[in-house]
Design brief:
Order of helices and strands: HHHHEEEEEEEEHHHHHH
Helix content: 55-70%
Distance between the termini: 43 Å
Number of domains: 2
Strand content: 15-25%
Low-confidence stretches: none
Radius of gyration: 23 Å
Shape: globular
Strand order of the largest sheet: 1-8-7-6
Oligomer: single chain
Number of helices: 10
Length: about 400
């Protein structure tokens, strides 16, 4: 068991280091280079496979099926990883251009080696017109809208595609991606029936498991949990009202926006609280009883913080899938949010990683770990960029 602890710690460190390095590679060489040489590379897939194998081994070794909630949580992680693998192996993601009054039944996929392949659709789409809707008395875009005709055999129907309003037909999904000055509409095309189904099953099980853990441990952190859930609800309402009343860019006009942001911010607030408690605890570190009491208080914040952070990340993934057709794109903000989740999930495994049972180490770790939150929230926007640069 001691060797497994060492292997787990080493694999944990390697995974975080590789993820962080991937964001730097993307900054220096571009997202396509990082996708091909890091995130889609065989060794990166193998690294996650080792993580999955370790989860299975520890599940058997610790007999976690005796604790249904913990078993459900780790099963959800395995399902999400398996769904990601299926998406990579069987999913299709490409683009198609629609010109007014010209039927199109093909889309194009850029392969890993840079080659472009042409794929046929079992139906055709015809663009009637493309419009940019603006806010009243403003030139700022409110939405991008394509008015189409879908022809499938002898059946024809009128379709409207806009931001956050996609077309689903025969396992294909079409998203408003771009346009050009000639009035042509550019759509993202995705086909991933197996990967998405398995991944969403994992998400659903994850949400259920996280909620069950909070209920199961409610006596430990009842006050903290319900106080911050109240903050979460209020923040979500405020952000939703802001979304309805402010001139936001089209992709942000989604109910997932307020839920995603409010959940993540609430989680970050709790993690900041853990760092503050750690600093207070270290003012007089020789009082062991005091350190243990402060550790208990930080742990009471850690469980809901990790639960909310995990929920926020996967709500964001669902939002991305609805908006762009890809629930995970290895954008620097996504990657650093995942890194933060991994860093703060480690202390929850103190039965395996016994170092976290030491109050002094726990508090120091909580203080240092807040750097990942700072990088995720501020550093990515300032230094690394990506599609989340508007945050």
């Amino acid at each position: 068991m001691k060797h497994i602890r060492h292997i787990t710690s080493i694999l944990f460190i390697i995974l975080i280091a590789v993820l962080a390095a991937g964001t730097i590679v993307e900054k220096l060489h571009g997202s396509d280079f990082a996708r091909i040489h890091v995130y889609s590379a065989w060794w990166f897939v193998a690294l996650w496979a080792l993580v999955a194998l370790l989860i299975v081994y520890m599940a058997v070794k610790c007999k976690i099926w005796k604790r249904l909630v913990v078993c459900a949580l780790h099963t959800s992680i395995l399902l999400i990883l398996a769904g990601a693998l299926l998406t990579m192996l069987t999913g299709q993601h490409g683009r198609m251009k629609l010109e007014p009054n010209r039927p199109n039944s093909h889309f194009f996929i850029e392969e890993k080696d840079g080659e472009i392949t042409k794929e046929a659709l079992p139906f055709s789409l015809t663009l009637d017109r493309f419009e940019i809707e603006t806010y009243p008395d403003s030139k700022k875009p409110k939405d991008y809208v394509s008015y189409l005709k879908l022809t499938d055999g002898e059946t024809q129907q009128d379709i409207v595609i806009s931001m956050n309003n996609i077309l689903k037909h025969k396992h294909y999904r079409f998203y408003q991606s771009d346009y050009d000055e000639r009035g042509n509409s550019i759509l993202d095309v995705a086909r991933d029936p197996w990967g998405i189904a398995l991944t969403y099953t994992g998400y659903a099980l994850l949400f259920i498991a996280l909620a069950a853990i909070l209920i199961e441990k409610r006596k430990t952190f009842r006050a903290v949990t319900w106080s911050w859930i109240s903050v979460l609800v209020i923040l979500a309402i405020v952000l939703h009202v802001r979304m309805l009343t402010r001139q936001l860019m089209p992709v942000l006009r989604s109910p997932f926006f307020s839920l995603h942001i409010s959940t993540i911010i609430t989680a970050y607030a709790l993690l900041i609280g853990i760092a503050v408690v750690g600093i207070i605890a270290l003012i007089r570190p020789k009082e062991l009883l005091r350190l243990e009491r402060m550790k208990s208080f930080s742990t009471a914040m850690l469980y809901p913080a990790v639960a909310l952070l995990a929920a926020g990340i996967f709500i964001g993934a669902i939002w991305a899938n609805v908006s762009w057709g890809n629930y995970w794109s290895w954008d620097p903000k996504e990657v650093w949010a995942l890194i933060t989740l991994l860093i703060y999930a480690a202390p929850l495994h103190e039965r395996l990683l016994k170092t976290f049972q030491k109050p002094l180490f726990f508090h120091i770790y909580g203080i240092v770990a807040i750097l990942s939150v700072v990088i995720t929230y501020f550093g990515v926007n300032l230094l690394l960029g990506g599609v989340h640069a508007y945050n």
